Amino acid sequence: MKICVIPGDGIGPEIIAQALRVMDILKQDGLKFETEHALLGGCAVDATGVPYPEATQKIARAADAVLFGAIGGPKWDNLPRNQRPERGLLGIRKDLNLFANLRPAMLYPELANASTLKPEVVSGLDIMIVRELTGDIYFGEPRGITVEDGKRVGRNTMIYNEDEIRRIGHVAFQAARKRNKKVCSIDKMNVLETTQLWRDIMIEISAEYPDVELSHMLVDNAAMQLVRNPKQFDVMVTGNIFGDILSDEASMLTGSIGMLPSASLDENNKGLYEPIHGSAPDIAGKNLANPLATILSAAMMLRYTFNKEAEATRIENAVKKVLADGYRTGDIYEEGTKKVSCSEMGDAVVAAM
Ligand code: NAI
Ligand code: MG
């Protein structure tokens, strides 16, 4: 097990340090893995002039998984587009062919008040959005703004071929097998032919998963159902643009950006694992960040790339225990709980392990 570790910018190094402490507990207990650190984003621009340096490419390609903190910050905001830190992240995703984005949204009962929705709507929420990342209207040709008959015309093309749909479908069905065995495929087949093909392919491959229940929903209804009754879902699978919007909507159901991990996978379950939040420049360097999203990203890495279900569950249970014991970083603090720093939250998780 080879892990490329990329702390990145802002709070990245602080939260990654806590995730590595948790991984070290597993190592002490016999789990064998190697780590190698690499630069990405703003710190890479400072050190090498580019956001995704060759040395990082080498390490990331040779690894089985990448554990990543966050990148970006005001320091680099005025750089030209192709030198900006974000280019580093887009670059590594494309380079490693990470086409499947897995974003769980789950609510810990202790944090029920963090959500803007009523506790009965979100309590016990545990859903997974599987978003296709490398196709759809974001990449389809032709595209651009042209002048036709004296008028400016904007154009993008929604396009998926059956292989692209099939491979993301398999990721969703396999994820459902590790969960509650339900897949809801999201499309707009009443209007868009591309998504009619999407639905047809999902139905085709569902034959290979008789143990998983497949349903379909139009995207506009899905957006409503996510806030009306999100607990009806287990795994939701959808294309790039619908998934972009629905995954952000779903992550906010729980109200705690510092709690949610994510995975981006290739065809062999090699993956990049990161918290959904950014580099939080406003609290960087102050030991205030919530490291739990990153610690839970390490758990996802153990589950999806390394098939270490017991170790993944052990980390997740430790996180549940520290929340039950009342430990809170500032972002999830409420009266009557114990306010802790980033490293103290790490201490608590390590102790719970
Ligand atoms: P952000 O997610 O960094 O921060 C939004 C708010 O949430 C801030 O108030 C921040 O303090 C808070 N927050 C975020 N993570 C937290 C944590 N773990 N614990 C406690 N509080 C936390 O988003 P923002 O402010 O829009 O972007 C800041 C920088 O991050 C920008 O340069 C942006 O480009 C970059 N970014 C990077 C991402 C990545 O590396 N994947 C994703 C999103 C933004
Ligand atoms: Mg988005």
UniProtKB/TrEMBL annotation:
Q: Which residues are marked as site: Important for catalysis?
A: Y138, K188
What are the EC numbers? 1.1.1.85
Instruction: Report residues binding substrate.
Output: R93, R103, R131, D220
Quote the SUPFAM superfamilies the UniProt record gives.
Isocitrate/Isopropylmalate dehydrogenase-like
Which Pfam families does the entry link to? Iso_dh
Q: Name one GO molecular function term.
A: 3-isopropylmalate dehydrogenase activity
User: Please, which domain of life does this record's source organism belong to?
Assistant: Bacteria
Cofactor(s) it depends on? Mg(2+); Mn(2+)
Enzyme class, spelled out:
oxidoreductase
- Location in the cell: Cytoplasm
Q: What is its main location?
A: cytoplasm
Cofactor detail note: Binds 1 Mg(2+) or Mn(2+) ion per subunit.
Pathway terms, separated by semicolons: Amino-acid biosynthesis; L-leucine biosynthesis; L-leucine from 3-methyl-2-oxobutanoate: step 3/4
GO terms of biological process kind: L-leucine biosynthetic process
> The Isopropylmalate dehydrogenase-like domain covers which part of the protein?
2-349
Protein name per its UniProtKB record: 3-isopropylmalate dehydrogenase
Query: Which species is the source of this protein?
Result: Formivibrio citricus
